[in-house]
């Protein structure tokens, strides 16, 4: 079973929000769609899930277009939206029952499925509590649970961990992994958290400004930076002249500053240490540590777009 | 569709306050305005007759919609009249009465006319009983029955052929405020469609086997039922709880609410299709409902409005036809045939506004 997007484009008035996106999902894999806010991820998955029609391009399930006949895809697709799409004045159980009923589940089958989902998302003990009294993490878990009610083969998750604590995030990531391993569920996971995608995904698409700018396995993507090193410098105080000087160096690719950590990308064959210490001395910058690191997906993104994922 | 209705009912049970509060406010305002207009003119009475005769006469006098006769002693009646606290007092005698006044006012002659009428009817009944040798109670019963079901009915019309204007100060606020307040109840329920769209619940439904029409019908039927129950409940409270007379057409009133509530549901979905967010909706609803109530004759009878501009505007407002229907049936005693015009206009408005409204909501990218 395969779901693919072919040359998907969405244009609102004069603006192309998504431009010629191609991607595919094969049975049993977790695919990451990575990109900063405003990259066009949500619009892309809205088109893939048949919620909005593309301006051009196609969405195919097993090589058959589903644009005109979306019901075929909808039967096998679960979508976890970025918003908490639940009735806050109903309990967890009532929400599951309602969404189960609209998926034509009823009677003992519905009850069994609701109990099973509550167990999966760890809310059995809180099933009768109103959603409005839940923590952000619990709401997110229930948001996922609702999408699993009709046992979909594909599940699309749009930033399912936004705004929750690390413990809840780990729980959700483990749940996604378990669903994939135990039920062979195919997952398209969008996020702007690099570490989530690194943890979960077999293959990754990186998206920016409406287009896919890189794709492949984690290793393949990291190999984009095989000719470069990431150098991370911790300083006592960030001196603007030092940053400006770094940006003027032709051997330094991309400079980012976060708190007192300065990160640069530089060609592997060049020893930049001498240059860095010289510039630090000239600008009265004091290092507390300097480290060469293996490139991460974040570094790849920085390399490809010239900006950090959460800019 | 049934699952949507079931969920909505559950949500209503969890949060009934909006419904309860608007219903109470409506009943309260209609009651205050209705009873304020309904205060009877107090007329103190004393008598030189036996207790039995006095009670009989007093019972007959109490049938007035305008005057409230209260039995007191002679001294108290004279004091009240002389101090100007009442306009007139009455001394009841066997075949006649005395009117005690300190000055002539418009009401004193009305009181005199009314008391005279009661005495005349009493005398008439006594004379019939005397000549027919029938018991007085029996004669009174026959006379009352004949008065209630006359052989001939006289209808008064002006030269221009228009119907006489009747203003019922009790039913006017009940109808007006019910039709006004229900706009809020319905509109805020219909607005949930936009809210659910924004929260992504609507998308979940779209991705389910539910059909779009089921989603709309489920939501709109719920809004219709809640609105209908509210007005029906208010009418029921007034009819059974406060003994307000709907001129024997209470059941028709409940039936006639259907086209009005339908038109308001359609108007609400039209407004929901126009607004972009909750703030806009919250701002626009009071504006529309208050202006519709003023133009449509919910606050005051349209019969007293003479401005041609306002009367023309009123033709485009559902409240106008809602009031026309209810007042037509209850106050003017119109038949269903006479009411077909406002009923059809309301259904027409409903169909058009609902068509445009759903189209707008569908086009809106939330």
Automatic annotation (TrEMBL), chain A:
InterPro entries: AAA+_ATPase, ABC_transporter-like_ATP-bd, ABC_transporter-like_CS, P-loop_NTPase
Assigned keywords, A-Z: ATP-binding, Nucleotide-binding
Entry GO MF terms: ATP binding; ATP hydrolysis activity
Residues annotated as domain ABC transporter: 3-234
Name this protein carries in UniProt: ABC-2 type transport system ATP-binding protein
Organism: Thermaerobacillus caldiproteolyticus
From TrEMBL, chain B:
This protein's GO CC annotations: plasma membrane
Topological type in the membrane: Multi-pass membrane protein
Pfam families (alphabetical): ABC2_membrane_3 (PF12698)
Family membership: Belongs to the ABC-2 integral membrane protein family.
Keyword match S-adenosyl-L-methionine: no
Keywords recorded for this protein, A-Z: Cell membrane, Membrane, Transmembrane, Transmembrane helix, Transport
UniProt domain ABC transmembrane type-2: residue ranges: 136-364
Domain of life: Bacteria
GO MF assignments: ABC-type transporter activity
Protein's cellular compartments: Cell membrane
Transmembrane parts of this sequence: 174-194, 215-241, 253-274, 281-302, 339-361
Chief location category: membrane
Protein name as catalogued: ABC-2 type transport system permease protein
Coiled coil: none
PANTHER family: LINEARMYCIN RESISTANCE PERMEASE PROTEIN LNRN (PTHR30294:SF45), MEMBRANE COMPONENT OF ABC TRANSPORTER YHHJ-RELATED (PTHR30294)
């Amino acid at each position: 079973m395969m779901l693919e997007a072919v040359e998907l484009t969405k244009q609102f008035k004069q603006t192309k929000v998504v431009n010629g996106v191609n991607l595919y999902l094969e049975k049993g894999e977790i695919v990451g769609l990575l990109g900063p806010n405003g990259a066009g991820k949500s619009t892309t998955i809205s088109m893939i899930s048949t919620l909005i029609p593309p301006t051009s391009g196609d969405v195919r399930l097993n090589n058959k277009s589903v644009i005109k006949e979306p019901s075929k895809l909808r039967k096998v697709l679960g979508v976890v939206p970025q918003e908490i799409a639940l009735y806050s004045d109903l309990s967890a159980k009532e929400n599951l029952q309602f969404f189960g009923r609209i998926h034509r589940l009823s009677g003992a089958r519905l009850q069994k499925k609701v109990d099973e989902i509550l167990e999966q998302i760890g809310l059995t003990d809180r099933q009768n509590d109103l959603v409005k009294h839940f923590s952000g993490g619990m709401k997110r878990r229930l948001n996922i649970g609702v999408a699993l009610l009709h046992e979909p083969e594909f599940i699309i998750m749009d930033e399912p961990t936004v705004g929750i604590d690390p413990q809840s995030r780990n729980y959700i990531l483990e749940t996604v992994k378990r669903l994939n391993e135990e039920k062979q569920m195919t997952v398209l996971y969008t996020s702007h958290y690099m570490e989530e995608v690194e943890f979960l995904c077999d293959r990754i698409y990186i998206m920016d400004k409406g287009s896919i700018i890189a794709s492949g396995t984690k290793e393949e993507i990291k190999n984009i930076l095989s000719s470069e090193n990431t150098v991370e410098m911790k300083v006592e105080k960030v001196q603007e002249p030092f940053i400006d000087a770094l940006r003027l160096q032709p051997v330094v690719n991309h400079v980012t500053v976060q708190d007192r950590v300065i990160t640069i990308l530089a060609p592997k064959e060049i020893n930049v240490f001498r240059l860095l210490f010289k510039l630090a001395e000239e600008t009265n910058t004091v290092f507390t540590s300097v480290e060469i690191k293996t490139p991460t997906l974040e570094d790849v993104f920085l390399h490809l777009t010239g900006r950090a994922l959460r800019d | 569709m049934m699952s949507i209705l079931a969920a909505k009912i559950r949500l209503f049970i969890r949060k009934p306050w909006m419904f309860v509060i608007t219903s109470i406010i409506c009943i309260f305002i209609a009651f205050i305005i209705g009873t304020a207009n309904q205060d009877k003119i107090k007329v103190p009475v004393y008598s030189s007759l036996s207790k039995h005769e006095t009670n009989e006469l007093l019972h007959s006098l109490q049938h007035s919609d305008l005057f409230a006769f209260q039995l007191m002693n002679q001294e108290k009646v004279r004091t009240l009249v002389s101090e100007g606290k009442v306009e007139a007092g009455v001394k009841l005698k066997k075949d006649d009465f005395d009117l005690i006044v300190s000055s002539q006012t418009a009401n004193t002659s009305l009181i005199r006319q009314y008391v005279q009428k009661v005495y005349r009817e009493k005398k008439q009944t006594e004379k019939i009983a005397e000549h027919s040798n029938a018991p007085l109670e029996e004669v009174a019963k026959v006379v009352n029955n004949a008065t209630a079901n006359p052989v001939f009915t006289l209808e008064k019309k002006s030269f221009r052929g228009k119907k006489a204007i009747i203003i019922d100060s009790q039913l006017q606020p009940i109808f007006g405020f019910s039709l006004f307040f229900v706009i809020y109840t319905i509109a805020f329920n219909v607005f949930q469609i936009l809210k659910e769209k924004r929260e992504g619940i609507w998308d979940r439904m779209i991705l389910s086997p539910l059909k779009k029409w089921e989603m709309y019908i489920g939501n709109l039927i719920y809004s219709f039922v809640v609105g209908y129950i509210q007005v029906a409940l208010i009418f029921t409270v007034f009819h059974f709880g406060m003994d307000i007379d709907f001129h024997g057409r209470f059941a028709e009133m409940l039936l006639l609410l259907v086209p009005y509530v339908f038109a308001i549901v359609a108007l609400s979905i039209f407004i929901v299709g126009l607004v972009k967010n909750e703030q806009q909706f919250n701002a626009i609803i009071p504006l529309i409902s208050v202006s519709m109530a003023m133009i449509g004759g919910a606050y005051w009878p349209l019969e007293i409005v003479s401005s041609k501009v306002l009367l023309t505007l009123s033709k485009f407002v559902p409240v106008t036809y809602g009031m026309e229907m209810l007042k037509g049936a209850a106050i003017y005693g119109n038949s269903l045939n006479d009411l077909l015009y406002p009923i059809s206009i309301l259904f027409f408005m409903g169909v058009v506004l609902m068509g445009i409204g759903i189209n707008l909501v569908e086009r809106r990218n939330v």
